[in-house]
Amino acid sequence: MFLAYGVKVTYLKRISFGFFELRDLPLGEYRELLEEEKNSLRNDLN
């Protein structure tokens, strides 16, 4: 997508996915969803 505008991306870091924020999550690690995140996900799926 960026290359179409002449911009070459050499590094990309995902900091969120939808309403999920990764915060200070170390590379290769995972965390349990917060109750608020679970509720938001349930609401979006209904």
Features:
flat, 1 helix, two-stranded antiparallel ribbon, 46 residues, alpha+beta
Q: Can you describe this structure?
A:
The protein has 46 residues and is an alpha+beta fold. The protein has one domain (3-45). The chain has one helix and two strands, in the order ββα. It has one helix at residues 35-45; strands at residues 16-17, 20-21. The protein has a two-stranded antiparallel ribbon with strand order 1-2. The longest helix is centred in the last third of the chain and has 11 residues, at 35-45. It is flat, with a radius of gyration of 15 Å. The termini are far apart. The model has no long low-confidence stretch (mean pLDDT 88). GO terms for molecular function: pseudouridine synthase activity; RNA binding. InterPro entries: PsdUridine_s_RsuA/RluB/E/F_cat, TruA/RsuA/RluB/E/F_N.
